[in-house]
Structures are given as C-alpha cells and as structure tokens.
Amino acid sequence: MLLEKYQKEDFFDEMFEEDGKVRPHYEAVASGLNDVTVDEFRNKQTAVDAAFMRHGVTFTVYSDDQGTERIFPFDCVPRVISAEEWDHIEAGLIQRITALNLFLHDLYHDQKILKDRTIPASYIFGAKHFRRECSGMDVAKNIYVHICGTDLIRDRQGRYMVLEDNLRCPSGASYMLENRAALKRAFPDLFQSVKPLPVGAYSQDLLAALQYAAPDTFGGDDHPTVVLLTPGVFNSAYFEHAFLARQMGIPIVEGRDLVVRDSKVYMRTTAGLVRVDVIYRRIDDDFLDPSKFREDSLLGVPGLFNAARAGNVTLANAVGTGVADDKAVYCFVPKIIKYYLDQDPILPNVETYMASEDDHRSHILANLDKLVVKAANEAGGYGMLMGPWASKAEIEEFRKNIEADPRNFIAQDPISLSRHPTWVGEGFEGRHIDLRPYILYGEKVTVTPGGLTRVALRKGSLVVNSSQGGGSKDTWVLRHPNAKTGSQA
C-alpha cells in the first residue's frame, strides 16, 4: 500500500484527518493509490514527464547554471476539494474580483474611497503600478480585471485565506489544463470513478470574456478580432502564451506585428492590415507603449495606449490594474469589499504588517528573523525574505532596504501551509501547497473549478513558485451528490 508509510506530521493535511483517517472526499483517491505498486506509480510518473517533454510543457529559469528551459514539475497525486469547500471558495473569489473592479474604476475616476479616507491616498499615489495616465479613462463594460489568478492557502486550522491577488498578467492556466490531460491519461480508471468537475472549458470561457470586452466601436457582423500579445519566445511563460492562443484559435503576435493608425490598432498579415479589437496582453504596463511609458521598450506598440484611451481597442487586463495587487494595497482589500459591497470578506487576508506604519515597522525590524518579508511589487517568489531560514547577511540587507523605502515592504508571520502527499521517488512525503484558481470577468464572473495547485517540492520549503523549485498538481473539485455528470474534460 503506497500510503501506508506516509507521515502526516504536525500540519493541516489535505488528505488525512488529525486521527490519521482519510478525509471523506479523498477516500476514492486514497483507495486508488493504494491499489498501485511503487513500480507502477514510478512508471506513470515517468510517462507523464516524458509527455510533458514531448508537448513542450516547460518554463524558464533565468540566471541558472543548470540551464534555463525546464519541464514543468508535476506530481501525479491529485489535490481534491469537496463540493462544499468549493462553494465557499467560489463565492469568496467572485466577491473579491467584483469589489476590486469597482475599486479600480473609482480610483481612475471619482476617487471616492480616497476622499472618504477609507484608504490613505499616499498608498495609492505611492504605488508603482498606479497610472496617472489612466485618470478619467473609460474601459469597455467598466471591466478592468478580465483575468485574475488569486493565490489561496490554508492555515493550520484548514481555513482558506487569500495570500495575494494577481491582476496584471496572471500565469499558470495552461499548466492547469495540461495537468488535467496528463492525469486522465495516467489514472483513467481513478478519474472515471471520481468524475471531478471539468476544467476544459477554460480557454473558450476566456475567449468569450475577451470578446465580451470588445470596445463600443466594434460594429462588425462577425466576432471581434482578439489577439494575444507576447514578449516573444524568450519569455519565461511563452509556452503558455502559445498554448492559450492555440486553444482559443486566435493569433499570437509580438509588438512588431501591430501598428496604430488614427488611434486604431491593426495587425499585419499577408493579406494586409486587419483591425484588432481586443488584445490579451502578456506584457507589463511599462513595456506596452514606448511612446507613453518606457521609451526603450522594443516589445510594445507605439500609440497603443492612446488607441485604448480613445476606446478603439480593449487591453486585457486594463492598464493600471497593478495598483490593486500591490502588496501594500492588499492589506486594504477587506475594507475595499466593505466599502463597495457592504459585505464582510468571505475569504480573509493573511494578517499583514505594513513597514510604512511606524509601529508595524518597529515590529518588523525587531523580528526580521521570525517574519516573511515581501517587496510590494515583486512576484514569482522574488524580493522575499524568509526570515526563519535566512542568513544574517540577507536579514541585514532587507533591514537596510526597509529603512530606505518602507512603503515598498510588508511582512507576515510564517504560515504553515497545508501539506499534501507528494511522490518523492520511492514513496510519499508531505509537501506544502497553495492554490491558484482562475477567475474570468466577462458577461458574468466565471471561476474555473479547481485551478493550479502549486507544491513546494523541496522538503520543508514554503515557496511553491516554479522559479524557486516548485511544481504542481491537478486539482479535482468534486460534484454535489445530485449534480449531473456532464463533460469529463
């Protein structure tokens, strides 16, 4: 029995209860795994790795002497979420993206939340990704965040909490889809017995959300023309860019493939110029338009921002959304939800200390060896100090950085992320995990059931990012008992 020697240890374990019994919603998975021998499981894992290599399921790690292109690490043990848990998660995510969209519209128009002093204006105007150029700028359907990837964790009591929101160019959805396909091939009988909710509609749901966001100037009889704008093949997420464009059946373009004329965007094709209505951009604000932002950008399109401001093209996500996923602004999201929706947050934030507040900064500086410190505008596990595991030199470097620019740092107590049985070569050990569900805002808000479970493959590590040695799992959301079976994708 593969799980016989598994040690739960003193963490919230996704599969096992405190007394060591399998949680009810994991019984089918645990039973299926126990019917597999070590050799059989190892062969399945090897087959999945080989399939990922053939399909080009990779990511890029820069500045690494072991090479930059890697297979995206995948663990064949699925993470399972009960129907009741998913109802709670879904409601919380819909609440959150709704409030954040209202917040962004307010920031770039009336700024009522600042005038009412619910949030100190200094946090907004001091945010790196607040774009004054967007003041008074309307966006189609008033939707700023078309695609959101919110990172959730579970604490020692098993409560779901929001670690951060990713509102600019959230990545990982392609791995969610590839993971599902891989696990269906590896464990077809187990998959059929559990019948988790499907994720295969994500690409078409994404396309529908992008088409819905077409500007009011779109008047064609056919669907709006949607393109995916990528920095190019050397970008760390290029696999995902190409994958999603192929899945949606839309062109993938680089900046040099687009041109702006009379505040309208056109795509160069062999048949001539074709008008573009919606750009799913995977390029940060700074590099989108060298005539408006960074002059040295070779990735963007001159005049693109003015075309968007004129209402002739929709950028998804909208320019300026990054202010809402600033890690300092994150601290105010519960207040944002209360202000715009008059509701308490369904999914709470992690308790956070703000270095810009004098009393918080004193606490942070006195406890750097006990806290997790994050730069407000970094992502991917970069710009982060894991105090309990950091060297004295790293701690002192962060101390100087915090004292020099306190607005740019927040801190949190280390949270013992929930753990999950994970294959380590000869058996299973517990590894820490989080969850990134994907939320699409189109005609309605759609949350793909499951998302990307990321796993810290290094023993004891709390960092799940692929750039920092993490991998992923397929995420199975169970159906309500009386729900129709429907698609199995």
Explain what this protein looks like in three dimensions.
There is one protein chain. The chain has 489 residues and is α+β, with helices and mostly antiparallel strands. Helix content is 29%, strand content 21%. It has helices at 27-34, 38-55, 83-107, 112-115, 121-125, 173-186, 188-194, 202-212, 238-248, 285-288, 304-309, 333-341, 358-366, 392-404; strands at residues 58-60, 69-71, 74-81, 147-154, 160-166, 226-229, 252-253, 258-261, 264-269, 272-275, 278-281, 314-316, 352-354, 372-375, 384-386, 409-412, 419-423, 428-436, 438-441, 445-447, 452-456, 470-477.
Task: Give structural attributes.
489 residues; alpha+beta; 4-stranded antiparallel sheet; 14 helices; 22 strands; globular
What's the layout of helices and strands?
Layout: H1 27-34, H2 38-55, E1 58-60, E2 69-71, E3 74-81, H3 83-107, H4 112-115, H5 121-125, E4 147-154, E5 160-166, H6 173-186, H7 188-194, H8 202-212, E6 226-229, H9 238-248, E7 252-253, E8 258-261, E9 264-269, E10 272-275, E11 278-281, H10 285-288, H11 304-309, E12 314-316, H12 333-341, E13 352-354, H13 358-366, E14 372-375, E15 384-386, H14 392-404, E16 409-412, E17 419-423, E18 428-436, E19 438-441, E20 445-447, E21 452-456, E22 470-477
Parallel strand pairs: 3-22, 6-7, 6-11, 11-12
Antiparallel strand pairs: 1-2, 4-5, 4-19, 8-9, 9-10, 13-16, 14-15, 14-16, 17-18, 18-21, 19-20, 21-22
Helix pairs in contact: 2-6, 3-12, 6-7
